Amino acid sequence: MDASARVTTKGQITIPKEVRDALGIVEGDEVVFRVEEHRALLARTPNLLDLAGTVEVPATKRHARWDEVRTRTRRARAESRR
Question: What is the mean pLDDT of residues 24-40?
Answer without folding.
Answer: 92
